[in-house]
Amino acid sequence: MVALAAVALDTTLGEPRRAHPLVAFGRMARAIEARGYADRRIAGVLAWSCAVLPVVAITWWAMYEARSASPWLAAALGAGVLYLAIGHRSLGEHARPVAQALQAGDLGAAREAVGRMVSRDTAVLDESQVAAAATESVLENGCDAVFGALFWFAVLGAPGVVLYRLANTLDAMWGYRTPRYENFGWAAARIDDALNYIPARLTALTYALLGDTTRAWCCWRMQAPAWDSPNAGPVMAAGAGALRVQLGGAAPYHGVWELRPLLGAGAAPGADSITRALKLVRDGVLLWLGVWCALVLVAHRWLHA
């Protein structure tokens, strides 16, 4: 019921427009980086620990105190934490304008909208490449912003989902293979990889079950190992196969076209690919919540048999 309440809150309210906790955490992380940066892995480990562990500890303490006071208070607090960690509605709010602009034939607006979703150089993308960028972002963030949060909430409750989302945020800030972050961001990247290992494969399985299962499985097995990310590869390969589109390929970053492996199989992506990817994520959330509720009911009956 806590998970259902959190998803309902996200669907109804979306992300807070002001004072989002992750924005405040990002500012704190930048302050820690400014004071503790050094081109060494140990510096990154210490910075990650100083940023994440106190927040997780405070969350654990707050949940402990809430449970001691009232189970209803603990449930409300847990629902609030999970709501703040989920970005399902936000995913649609960012992706739908891209699809709508492509449907209207406004490539300039589509490039501008997809530029708010991805880090590649969107000004040089054609219609198919814009659609591919948005579709890839929906599939990958379906894991990072939705399914991963649900998984860690199921495993470790509110402290678990806080740990996951803060680690994910630091990976987005520090986890780059650039001269500045090659060593300092090593811990952020590796920890995020570890925390996402199981959620990514469950997400890929979800996409496969809800789309073209055979094609998704084949793409996952054959194409994912060639992708540079051990977790994004399975998610996007299975998602592209499930949607029967071809993603990946060359993409421009900082003025240079990077040759990436192809993902999926089928037609070139378009506006419809974006909307179908959003539907895939939405159906996956409903499937996870349904399975979750069924498991809880079975466990409840077994314990009280």
From TrEMBL:
Q: Name one Pfam family in it.
A: CobD_Cbib
Q: Where in the cell is it found?
A: Cell membrane
Alphabetized, the UniProt keywords read:
Cell membrane, Cobalamin biosynthesis, Membrane, Transmembrane, Transmembrane helix
Q: Pathway listed for it? A: Cofactor biosynthesis; adenosylcobalamin biosynthesis
* Membrane topology classification: Multi-pass membrane protein
The record ties this protein, via InterPro entries, to: Cobalamin_biosynth_CobD/CbiB
Q: Where are the transmembrane segments?
A: 42-62, 145-167, 285-303
Purpose: Converts cobyric acid to cobinamide by the addition of aminopropanol on the F carboxylic group.
Protein family:
Belongs to the CobD/CbiB family.
By what name is this protein known? Cobalamin biosynthesis protein CobD
Query: What is the originating organism of this protein?
Result: Lysobacter cavernae
